[in-house]
Amino acid sequence: MGSSPMVYKSNALVEAAYRLSVQEQRIVLACISQVKRNEPVTDEVMYSVTAEEIATMAGVPIESSYNQLKEAALRLKRREVRLTQEPNGKGKRPSVMITGWVQTIIYREGEGRVELRFTKDMLPYLTELTKQFTKYALADVAKMDSTHAIRLYELLMQWDSIGQREIEIDQLREWFQLEGRYPSIKDFKKWVLDPAVTQINEHSPLQVEWAQRKTGRKVTHLLFSFGPKKPAKAVGKAPAKRKAGKLTDADIAQQGLALPGESWAEARARLNQMPLDLA
């Protein structure tokens, strides 16, 4: 089985203000993973993804993928992105730029296929990236069914080498375009933060924990700590290491380690050549 395609995004795009549904995210990310990051790409290049590919990628029934793909493709044409930073770490833009994700999108009904062209303004945030970009495997987010989880995962992976990130809640609301929604921190945690962290911990390679920080009496910042999941422990006990010279006749008798007709000396000689579970 081949490795998962990689997604590369300028950090400026990771921190842009936009909102996409989960299905729209899957279409965009599947196509971004096809962009040649190190080569010039024009806005004439078409990228495509099928309902079957998305169903396989996300682990969802093919029927639901077909039903959702067309609607998501049509909505995607109207989605906008608000960018305040230049790509490749060139600093703040002289003015805020609002652009679309795609300039052309085609849905091929009989094939269950979406084809799209990214906008000319979007391509510098996806191609010829040399610094200040975020990368991760498409499979890391493919099974997430929370758009906030996908966005938060990208924001954490931006600081992957550090393993910690502090984000102002109002800034996160702006990036997610949630201004005016979930105004209380209790609702924000319930509907945005907790589901996102749960999804990341369940479906991605990261294990995430978070805490909050107050300014005065108001919760203003979220502090995330994260790192690769620890490998699962093997089921059952590992053989205990034998301490040389400490195995007694009583140990052998108590554990029933001697073979039929075997003397204590013969049993010790045999057992000294193998690890013992004396627990």
Parts with pLDDT < 50 across at least 5 consecutive residues:
237-244, 275-279
Main-sheet strand order equals: 2-6-5
Name the CATH class of the largest domain.
Answer: Mainly Alpha
What structural category arises from helix and sheet content? alpha+beta
Number of domains: 3
**What is the name of the CATH architecture of the largest domain?**
Orthogonal Bundle
Strand content: 15-25%
C-alpha Rg (nearest Å): 27 Å
Q: Level of helix content? A: 25-40%
- Specify the biggest β-sheet: 3 strands, antiparallel
Task: Report on the architecture of this protein.
Belongs to the initiator RepB protein family. One of its GO terms (molecular function) is DNA-directed DNA polymerase activity. InterPro entries: Initiator_Rep_WH1, WH-like_DNA-bd_sf, WH_DNA-bd_sf. Helix 6 crosses helix 8. The strands form four sheets. A three-stranded antiparallel β-sheet has the order 2-6-5. By secondary structure, the protein is of the alpha+beta class. Strand 9 and strand 10 form a beta hairpin. It is globular.
Tell me the layout of helices and strands.
Elements (H helix, E strand, L loop, with lengths): L5 E5 H4 L7 H11 L14 E4 H8 L3 H15 L3 E6 L6 E9 L1 E7 L4 E6 L14 E5 L1 H4 L4 H11 L6 E5 H8 L8 H19 L2 E10 L2 E11 L20 H7 L8 H8 L8
Antiparallel strand pairs: 1-7, 2-6, 3-4, 5-6, 8-10, 9-10
Helix pairs in contact: 3-4, 6-8
In short:
Helix content is 34%, strand content 24%.
Notable characteristics:
279 residues, three-stranded antiparallel β-sheet, disordered C terminus, Arc Repressor Mutant, subunit A, alpha+beta
